[in-house]
Q: What sequence folds into this?
């Protein structure tokens, strides 16, 4: 979790986000209650969907800025007015 919070680059953010999926899936699958297989499967589907959506959002942000870098602050400052204001209020 610290890697997600401390990453200053989109690639590290996505890598650390994805690294959280497997340990929690295994904990649910091994140590869960009676419906642990179903819960673990649902968690895995939601987590992989969110990872895919985040990856798509990163690609859109990098394409929108026109810079070919994965630096979060550099891309944030390169966004235009309304998009930058929306990103500020949503973050």
A:
């Amino acid at each position: 979790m610290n890697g997600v919070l401390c990453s200053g680059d989109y690639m590290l953010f996505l890598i650390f986000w994805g690294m959280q999926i497997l340990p929690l899936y295994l904990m649910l699958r091994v140590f869960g209650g009676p419906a642990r297989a179903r819960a673990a499967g649902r968690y895995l589907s939601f987590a992989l969907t969110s990872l895919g959506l985040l990856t798509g959002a990163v690609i859109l942000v990098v394409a929108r800025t026109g810079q070919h870098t994965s630096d979060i602050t550099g891309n944030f400052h390169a966004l235009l007015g309304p998009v930058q204001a929306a990103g500020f209020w949503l973050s």
